[in-house]
Design brief:
Number of strands: 8
Number of helices: 0
Number of domains: 1
Structural class: mainly beta
Shape: globular
Strand order of the largest sheet: 1-2-3-4-5-6-7-8
Strand content: over 45%
Order of helices and strands: EEEEEEEE
Helix content: under 10%
Distance between the termini: 22 Å
Length: 106
């Protein structure tokens, strides 16, 4: 199943959405306050519970591709499913990322 979505940069992180045929969720990425080592996630990912409560649903790591392009590797739990996607720059759109199913980008 293909997962899609977009992220828009904010002053402190990103906001956006992730969706496929089974779900459609708004998400927010904020800097990880527990990051103490380089290998720890750069961002914590939050979503909303069915009752509208803010819930931590995943994490995102900053990565560099084989072609020296920066991207985010994201792991989320949505509706009981583990979802892995990469957030890649959206061409000429400054501050915009698009989500693609997990792969090793070049």
């Amino acid at each position: 199943m293909t997962t899609a979505g977009t992220l828009t940069e904010t002053k402190t992180g990103f906001i956006g959405h992730i969706s496929d045929l089974a779900f459609d969720a708004d998400i927010e990425l904020v800097p990880n306050p527990r990051k103490s080592k380089e290998e720890h996630p750069k961002f914590v990912i939050y979503g909303k519970s069915p009752r509208g409560r803010r819930v931590e649903i995943g994490a995102a790591w900053s990565r560099i591709s084989q072609n020296d392009n920066e991207y985010l590797s994201m792991s989320l739990s949505i509706m009981g499913n583990q979802v892995r996607v990469n957030a890649l720059p959206d061409g000429d759109k400054e501050g915009q990322l698009f989500l693609r199913p997990f792969a090793n980008p070049e």
